[in-house]
Amino acid sequence: MESITSASYAVHFNQNAYAVLEQHLTKKNYSKLFILVDTNTRRDCLPILKSRLRGKYDFEILEIIPGEENKNISTCTKAWEALSNLDADRKSLLINLGGGVVTDLGGFVASTFKRGISFINIPTTLLAMVDASVGGKTGVDLGPLKNQIGVINQPEMVLVVSEFLATLEVRQLNSGFAEMLKHGLIQDATYWKSLKLITDFVALDQLIYDSVIIKNKVVLQDPTEQGLRKILNYGHTLGHAIESYFLESTNHETLLHGEAIAIGMILEAYLSHHLTGLSEGSLEDIKSTFLGRYKKVRFSPSDIQNILSLLKFDKKNSHGNINFVLLHAIGKPAIDVKIPENLYKEAFAYYNGL
Ligand code: NAD
Known about the structure:
CATH class of the largest domain: Mainly Alpha
CATH topology of the largest domain: Dehydroquinate synthase-like, alpha domain
Number of helices: 14
Number of strands: 11
Bound molecules: nicotinamide-adenine-dinucleotide
Distance between the termini: 41 Å
CATH superfamily of the largest domain: Dehydroquinate synthase-like - alpha domain
Strand content: 15-25%
Order of helices and strands: EEHEHHEHEHEHEEEHHHHHHHEEH
Helix content: 40-55%
């Protein structure tokens, strides 16, 4: 598979990715090499990575505890301290080997350690391959509030190697698939149609490639999210608030990122039908696609109130306004849409009634 070029780096695929990594390590002659893993990727992915490299490298391994609840500044502090104790300097490299938690947090740790060291992302979940590892958004949560602290900073390269997916749970694969479905909804109705036909996750290479192309195309046109890049947040305004609320709530089981934004995409399709002309048929199509794949949650009136109160923390807000990405049609997004107050509750009532 041909590499995809982004602004300052490239995304390389499968076996070619290992060769490119080795050429890069030889060329750059980094002073020290660090690999950030979590407990699961240390067990399942690190041995694969090491076995695929022909050269001998002295990697120092930094390990974090898996899970969104650890994507926070105290985990960063431990990683910064470990880098410091292991004599990392500004010519060191950090390789992030893991899902979106590892690539988001590792990218931020690298971007801020000694005012910035180089990093490479090797995503190991479907979600991180098609979304989190590409585009340069790095950061951590602030309490339960998603991605409040961070910087946009690009990796040296991204290596997408689908063999890592062999050990990933189906629930996690589905979570990543939600971001791929989002790529279809915001940019490409034909891609959306082809994704809907997928019933298993055995031959994903071409679809992963297509999703990286879509994400990269958007990011290249608007790297710092002044306008167009906001479309990648379709489903995320309500989805992030739901994810945050469920992370903290003792009454609900935590939702994976993709599961939360799948609900967000149904709710925001309802808003799109009422505000930006999304047809009844497309609303039905979006709703049945996500309900067919992701579990239904029931929101009580107090859940809804709590979720809505979190919207004020959304990063797309400006001047006190909550700015939504909605759809005019499948493949045709609308940005900076304001929502009349009554429609939020109507959208949740619609979802609860499904
Ligand atoms: P994750 O990193 O928590 O990984 C999910 C689980 O899978 C973890 O338990 C992890 O240890 C395990 N795992 C990872 N790779 C594995 C493998 N190959 N085999 C077995 N187990 C494996 O979560 P995620 O879904 O990858 O990422 C979610 C995060 O990504 C969220 O924090 C979200 O905010 C972020 N995100 C960032 C961007 C961005 O542009 N930066 C975009 C979308 C999502």
